[in-house]
Design goal:
Length: 222
C-alpha cells in the first residue's frame, strides 16, 4: 500500500503544534516535539525508540501516548449513484486516560454530516454518518468494504482491528455467518484502519446475495 499523509494538530497540557499523520493503511506514524510515535491504533501510539525526546513533556500511560487531542482532515471517497466523488473527513480525537472520545464530520457539497460527539471507535462513528447520508451516497472506506470484518465476539477497540480479506475474496463473500468468518480468520490479508481505502474496495451489500453475516458497516445496525 502507498503511504498517505494527513495534516493536523496535536494538543496537550504543554501546548499545541502542527503535525503530519502518516499511514500505509495499517501502521500509523506521527512526529511530535522531536519524538516519533507509531502504532496500529490511534490509542496505541508509542515512541519508536521506547522513550520520548528529552523535554517533550508527554503523558505516557503504560508507554502509550495519552491525555492529548489530535485533530486532522483527510480526503475521503464516496460513491454517489455509482460514481466516485471526493469528500473531506474531519477527525477530532481526545485520548483521555480512561476512555477516548471521537468525533467525525464528513464535508460534501457544502453539507456536513456528523457523528455523535463522543463515539467510542471509528467504525461506530462512520456508521453514524452513513445512516444520515442520503440513500444514494455510500462511504468508500475499509469499514464499509464487503471484504472487511472483525473477529466474532472480539472487542474491536478504537481502530486498527479490522481484518481485510482481499486475498480470499470468494471465500469471504460466501461466508454465511460469524462461525464461517472465524474459520477464515487465518486467511486474512492483514489488519487495516477503518478510515483507509484501497483500489480493491467493494461496496458492502445491504441485502440479497453475498450479504451473509455482514451489515451496512461492520457490527452496526440502523
Amino acid at each position: 500500500m502507498t503511504d498517505e499523509s494527513w495534516t493536523g494538530w496535536y494538543r496537550d497540557g504543554h501546548g499545541s503544534e502542527a503535525v503530519i499523520l502518516t499511514t500505509d493503511g495499517q501502521q500509523l506514524r506521527m512526529r511530535v516535539r522531536g519524538t516519533d510515535f507509531e502504532g496500529t491504533s490511534f490509542d496505541g501510539l508509542r515512541p519508536v525508540t521506547g522513550v520520548p525526546a528529552e523535554g517533550g513533556g508527554f503523558d505516557l500511560v503504560d508507554g502509550v501516548l495519552g491525555d492529548c487531542v489530535l485533530e486532522w482532515d483527510l480526503p475521503l471517497p464516496v460513491l454517489t449513484s455509482g460514481a466516485v466523488r471526493r469528500a473531506t473527513l474531519s477527525c477530532l480525537l481526545s485520548l483521555r486516560r480512561d476512555d477516548p472520545d471521537l468525533y467525525l464530520a464528513l464535508h460534501l457539497d457544502g453539507a456536513v454530516y456528523e457523528s455523535y460527539r463522543a463515539e467510542s471507535d471509528f467504525s461506530a462513528a462512520l456508521a453514524t454518518i452513513q445512516r444520515i447520508l442520503p440513500a444514494e451516497i455510500r462511504l468508500q472506506t475499509c469499514a464499509a468494504c464487503a471484504l472487511s470484518g472483525y473477529f466474532p465476539a472480539q472487542d474491536r477497540g478504537l481502530s486498527g482491528a479490522l481484518a481485510c480479506f482481499r486475498g480470499a475474496k470468494d471465500a469471504y463473500r460466501d461466508a454465511a455467518d460469524t462461525g464461517a468468518v472465524a474459520g477464515l480468520w487465518d486467511r486474512r490479508t492483514g489488519f487495516v484502519q477503518e478510515i483507509w481505502n484501497c483500489r480493491e474496495f467493494e461496496p458492502r451489500p445491504a441485502e440479497g446475495a453475498a450479504t451473509g453475516h455482514r451489515d451496512a458497516l461492520p457490527l452496526e445496525t440502523a
